[in-house]
Design goal:
Elements lengths: L1 H13 L3 H4 L8 E4 L11 E4 L4 E4 L4 E10 L3 E10 L7 E9 L7 E8 L3 E8 L5 E7 L14 E11 L2 E6 L2 E7 L7 E7 L4 E11 L4
Antiparallel strand pairs: 1-4, 2-3, 3-14, 4-13, 5-10, 5-14, 6-7, 6-13, 7-8, 8-9, 10-11, 11-12
Length: about 210
């Protein structure tokens, strides 16, 4: 974990000279924002920055590669580094089960954290966003204040779909288990970032379970 934190920090520090680094927007990735009329022009930064991607948002939205889809039994895992949120408790995390993501009937399930040690599980169903699990505190979630001398704090979010249930983890600890009928997860996946956050996503991995 220490090695990954240093790698992400080094990439971030050199990104202030993005042109010199020749960092580019991830090829083929799409975005969709909650706010009507918002566009990528409102995003301060969304670039490939090995390992992973760096995003500094304006408006809240989702980011995904439409070629990334998953179904059946699987485990999805995302490691994300939070840089100084400047006191804002905006949410970030991953989404699964994406369908019609560019249309009026968009759907996805999302699992987010926010600074201060809380998580939430929600659905996006067209214009509606029903809550599956409300904001809930958990000791496994690392806050920005827990970073020590580092410039960022890492968390690993994981979602395991197995049979009739979907289980949610943070840093290896189970935080929630929900019937799969309540949180469809087959479809496109990616990450969601709310307003004015500065993040480095060092990896997003999806692994089939049971040989699927």
């Amino acid at each position: 974990m220490r090695t990954l934190r240093i790698a992400a920090l080094a990439s971030f520090m050199t990104a202030s000279a993005a042109a010199a680094q020749d960092l580019e927007r991830p090829d083929g990735w799409l975005t969709r924002f909650d706010q009507a009329g918002a566009s990528e022009a409102d995003v301060e930064m969304f670039v490939e920055m090995p390992p992973g991607w760096h995003v500094t948002t304006g408006p809240a939205g989702i980011f995904w590669d439409p070629t990334n889809t998953v179904s059946g039994d699987f485990r999805a895992e995302m490691e994300v580094f939070l840089f100084d949120p400047d006191g804002r408790r905006e949410a970030f995390g991953l989404f699964l089960g994406g369908r019609d993501l560019q249309g009026s009937n968009q759907e996805y399930t999302y699992f987010l954290l926010r600074d201060g040690g809380e998580y939430i599980i929600k659905r996006r169903e067209g214009a509606e966003a029903p809550t599956v699990r409300p904001w809930t505190g958990h000791t496994a979630i690392r806050s920005y204040a827990d970073r020590g001398d580092d410039a960022s704090v890492p968390n690993v979010l994981a979602v395991e779909a197995r049979g009739p249930n979907v289980t949610f983890y943070v840093n290896g600890d189970e935080v929630a288990r929900v019937p799969r009928s309540d949180v469809p997860v087959d479809g496109a996946f990616g990450f969601r970032v709310n307003h004015r956050l500065n993040l480095h996503i060092s990896r997003m991995d999806v692994t089939p379970i049971g040989g699927r």
